[in-house]
């Protein structure tokens, strides 16, 4: 257990509102990732970070932005939420050994 | 075609049965991962392998690099093994690609 927490764990919001999800880790892992999980799809990478202030886009980055101002925190922001962003969001970390440790997930519903 | 394919998609078995879940991939990889997602949603890494075979308790993972195929076996299955098992590969261009998962249900 890499000490990864996500907040909030559940959120319901309305279309057009901004939403920020937080991932916090206590293991000092360099790499952090945001994924979304939807029925009929495998986990899909949204954005990832390879260090403080170093981030890059993943496979499904449109409509999302991220920030990493501290090693332990990786924020995912939906600037203007849409119903297609209803999903379960997972954060993961990696200490560079290629094994990822996952957070508990955040269930986001956009009405 | 998905780059990582798992079979079966769903599997129901009786307690005690030997379980096999398969994963085929179409890209060059540096490693293959097996993950377990519990009914509550949490995801844990079970194995990472790049060749041969690994064993942990009742779980065994094998990989055949030439055939681009991996299997996850569970011996003496138990209802607590009920979960979604996910295969993922680390591709040579540093992407991680996930399969859609196999939902396993072990009946008591």
Provide the descriptors you would attach to this structure in a database record.
heterodimer; A: about 0% helix; globular; B: about 110 residues; mainly beta; 11 strands; about 60% strand
Describe the structure.
- The complex is a heterodimer of chains A (111) and B (108).
- Chain A has strands spanning 4-7, 10-13, 19-25, 31-37, 44-51, 54-57, 64-70, 73-78, 87-94, 100-102, 106-110.
- With 111 residues, chain A is mainly beta.
- In chain A, the strands form 2 sheets. In chain A, strands 2, 4, 5, 6, 9, 10 and 11 form a 7-stranded mixed sheet that branches. In chain A, strands 1-3-8-7 form a 4-stranded antiparallel sheet, with no helix packed on it.
- Chain B is mainly β and 108 residues long.
- In chain B, the strands form 2 sheets. In chain B, strands 2, 4, 5, 9, 10 and 11 form a 6-stranded mixed sheet that branches. Chain B has a 5-stranded antiparallel sheet with strand order 1-3-8-7-6, with no helix packed on it.
- Chain B is globular.
- In chain B, β7 (59-64) and β8 (69-74) form a beta hairpin.
- Helix content of chain B is 0%, strand content 62%.
- Chain B has strands at residues 4-7, 10-14, 19-25, 29-37, 43-49, 52-56, 59-64, 69-74, 83-91, 96-98, 102-107.
- Classes of the chains: A mainly beta (111), B mainly beta (108).
- The interface between A and B is medium-sized, with 16 and 22 residues.
For the termini of chain A, the CA-CA separation is 33 Å
The biggest sheet of chain A amounts to: 7 strands, mixed
Q: Give the overall average pLDDT of chain A.
A: 94
Given as residue ranges, the uncertain stretches of chain B (5+ residues, pLDDT < 50) are none
- Quick one: how many beta strands of chain A? 11
Class computed from helices, strands and strand pairing of chain B: mainly beta
- Please count the helical segments of chain A: 0
Quaternary status: heterodimer
Shape of chain B: globular
H-E order of chain A: EEEEEEEEEEE
């Amino acid at each position: 257990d890499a000490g990864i927490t996500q907040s909030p764990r559940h959120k319901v919001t309305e279309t057009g509102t901004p939403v920020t999800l937080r991932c916090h880790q206590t293991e000092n892992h360099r790499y952090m990732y945001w994924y979304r999980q939807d029925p009929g799809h495998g986990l899909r990478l949204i954005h990832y970070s390879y260090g403080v202030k170093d981030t890059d886009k993943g496979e499904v980055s449109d409509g999302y932005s991220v920030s990493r101002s501290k090693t332990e925190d990786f924020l995912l922001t939906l600037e203007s939420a849409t119903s297609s962003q209803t999903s379960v969001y997972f954060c993961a970390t990696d200490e560079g050994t290629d094994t990822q440790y996952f957070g508990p997930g955040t269930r986001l519903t956009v009405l | 075609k998905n780059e990582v394919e798992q079979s079966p998609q769903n599997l129901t078995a009786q307690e005690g049965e030997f379980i096999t879940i398969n994963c085929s991939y179409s890209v060059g990889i540096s490693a293959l991962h097996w993950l377990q997602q519990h009914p509550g949603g949490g995801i844990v890494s079970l194995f990472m392998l790049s060749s041969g075979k690994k064993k942990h308790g009742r779980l065994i993972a094998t990989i055949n690099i030439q055939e681009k195929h991996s299997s996850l076996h569970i011996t003496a299955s138990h209802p607590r093994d009920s979960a979604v098992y996910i295969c993922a590969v680390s591709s040579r261009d540093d992407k991680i690609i996930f399969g859609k998962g196999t939902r396993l249900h072990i009946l008591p």
